[in-house]
Amino acid sequence: MHKLLGIAILFIVVKIYSFKLSEVGFGKQKALPNLLLGLSFGIVTFILAYSVEILILTFRGSFDKLNLYVSAYSVDGNIGNQTAFIFFLICIIGNIINVIMEEGIFRGLFPKLLESKYTFIISAVIASVLFGLWHIMSPLRSYLDGTMSMGGFIGNSIMLITTSYLVGFKFAMMTKLTGNLYMAMGEHFVNNTIVNMLHVISDTGADELMVVRISIAQSVSFIAILLWYIIVQCKKKTEPKSPSAKL
């Protein structure tokens, strides 16, 4: 519900500031190609990450199988290991709502407001820090529920803020490179959905090395997008200026 509220706030603020939807990343141009690019990019990086995880477990002699089920949390606690179709549908719809809200606000609205005063890099850093802080609510909820110690809360908060900041900065670069939010939305959707649905089962349980899997996927994708961004910026600097630009 708070993600739906976030979407409502996003469009209210867009209307208040008289922005066009295209100005906050929801333009129609290349929407489908960029969305497919993001989905494909996310799938490829996670295929690599899952493969490495399976190889590690295989060499240790503990890999069992891949399993498809929905794992998520509710206010009352863990409701994981669900295989009914309705849970897969809820997971997909929930993640669609999530990426629309988070990308719309943190890669669309905030940069639009910030770039009127700051450069892209500074705007992306600020928006990504806010995106990192946004993710502190999960460990905070666990701490307030009594299921996590203060030390665990601090450690998890630092980890989540740092990783979410880096992921947010990657999505910001994607948005800058493609001119809209759709590639970032596609990869963001894959990132969230695949770890909710596709699980690696070993002798010691499920998703023993999930942190390794996610770290590999995010590191590879971050480096790839960073290199893309650097190459584009270098090309812009070496392009000859037109005569009119010198006048």
How would you describe this structure to a colleague?
This protein is mainly alpha-helical. It has one domain (about 35-230). The chain contains nine helices and five strands. The strands form two sheets. It has a three-stranded antiparallel beta sheet. A two-stranded antiparallel ribbon has the order 2-3. A hairpin with a 2-residue loop joins strand 2 (about 75) and strand 3 (about 75-80). Helix 2 runs parallel beside helix 7 (about 180-195), helix 2 (about 30-60) packs across helix 8 and helix 4 (about 120-135) packs antiparallel against helix 6 (about 150-180). The chain is globular. The termini are far apart. Mean pLDDT is about 90; it is low at about 75-80.
Could you list some keywords that capture this structure?
single chain; 247 residues; mainly alpha; three-stranded antiparallel beta sheet; two-stranded antiparallel ribbon; globular
| Helix/strand class | mainly alpha
Helix content: over 70%
Question: Helix tally?
Answer: 9
What does the average pLDDT come to? 89
Structural domain count: 1
Distance between the termini: 54 Å
The strand line-up of the biggest sheet is 1-4-5
Strand content: 5-15%
Number of strands: 5
Sum up the overall morphology in one term. globular
Q: Radius of gyration, Cα only, in angstroms?
A: 20 Å
> Unreliable stretches, pLDDT < 50, 5 or more residues?
73-78
Order of helices and strands: HHEEEHHHHHEEHH
Q: Sketch the major β-sheet.
A: 3 strands, antiparallel
